[in-house]
Amino acid sequence: MKDSAGPDFPEKRSAVVIVGPTASGKSAVAMELARSIPAEIVNADSRQVYRGLAACTSLPSERERKAVPHHLYGFLDPDEPYSAGRYAREARGAVLAILKRGRTPIVAGGTGLYIRALCDGLAELPERKEEVRKTLSDFAAERGPAALHRRLAAVDPVSAEKIPAGNVQRVVRALEVHALTGRPLAEWHRSGGKPAPFESFFFGLRWDREVLKARISERCARILDGTLSEAGELLAEGRMTSGPAFQSLGLRAAAARLRGESSRKEFARSLATDTLRYAKRQITWFSRDARVRWLDLSEPFDPSAAAGIILREIPVPAGGAGRRPVSTREF
User: Fold this and answer.
1) CA torsion, points 30, 31, 32, 34, in degrees to nearest 10?
2) pLDDT, tens digit, for every residue of 311-331?
3) Which of 10, 24, 49, 241 is at a distance of 20 to 30 A from 167, taking alpha carbons?
4) Do residues 220 and 275 make contact, with C-beta atoms less than 8 angstroms apart?
5) Secondary structure element (H or E) that encloses residue 42, with its range
6) Longest CA span, the chain
7) 206 and 73 co-located in one domain
8) Is the pTM for the entire model greater than 0.85?
């Protein structure tokens, strides 16, 4: 494994931000780093905030969450909307509390908008207006997500390019903002917000595309049955497939499989295809951020080696002695 050159980092208390596409090993590297220094992990995955989605979102295990403090994982009801603005407030609160305890916050996840909101801030968007949201949600239920997405493309093509048609929650929010303000959501985002009151070290996990594709394929096979089970539990609870939790990769396709609308093979293919597309969007998003220092990974994956490179680049809080030795193999 090798790391590419990046900016010099300030010698002051900071957060570590670990980014990359799905299945790149972010959680594993975060855990290795947290075992080496006094640290706590903060979620930056918009799907891992929901309860009951441990399999389909590859949530850190209960044992891992007991070994190292984790924040903003699996705490939200599946029907409760969650925005980047709310995430920024809650994640900043978690990061500042960790810093106050004299520990290092490790932010790990692949939701680029959440990480931007946390570190750079977002413009103050208008409050949600339920009647507008209901009208848009009803339109999606009657005409389909693709029709709703075409409406977004007509008024905010930049946001439409970034938001997949299947993510009805985000499409509704973008259209809501435009309806309430007359300005595209993309324009609001460009206007920026208040940056976080702490510095951040950005590290990205990068794989050869074919290797990443194989890792995604392996993950999809591993979570297939769990995703079906979680979709079944949500449906049994009366959750609507238009709700927030069902925006998670694979859940709608799993619901279709459970209704007999597709075969197991078709569901597996859909899950893998959608996950690959999502990974490509993540790579595009993070590749545009010049702050990210990329770590080029290869199989066999050694998360401790990646954590070792990160350790050499960051200041460790007082009391952080006792690092484990870094692997000496060729990176």
Assistant:
1) 80
2) 999 876 655 543 333 322 222
3) 24
4) yes
5) strand 39-43
6) 60
7) yes
8) no
